[in-house]
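Open question from group meeting: does this chain pack into something compact, or does most of it stay loose? Before anyone orders reagents, we agreed to write out a predicted structure and look at it together. Recording both the input and the output here so the notebook holds the full record.
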Amino acid sequence: MEFQVVDIDGKEFIETDIIEKNGNSYAYLVNSEDDKDFMIRKLVSKNGKIYYSGLDDDNEFDLALMYFAKKHSNLLKNQE
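Structure tokens returned:
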């Protein structure tokens, strides 16, 4: 997988994963200088281009975070 580097508000974020669930694609981004600074964005297509969009609410954030945790549970267990 090739990781994309994205500049958001003057910070460099690395796209670490994309998970597709229930008709949505979620991008997981981590600050290249601080791995505790992360964000989850929804990918939306408009006029043939893909854009990052904010999530609808806290429930969607929690759901997207759960998708990531389930997919990477083996990595998270090794962090404990």
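Observations to bring back to the group:
The helical segments are 58-71, 73-79.
Residues 11 and 62 are 24 Å apart (CA to CA).
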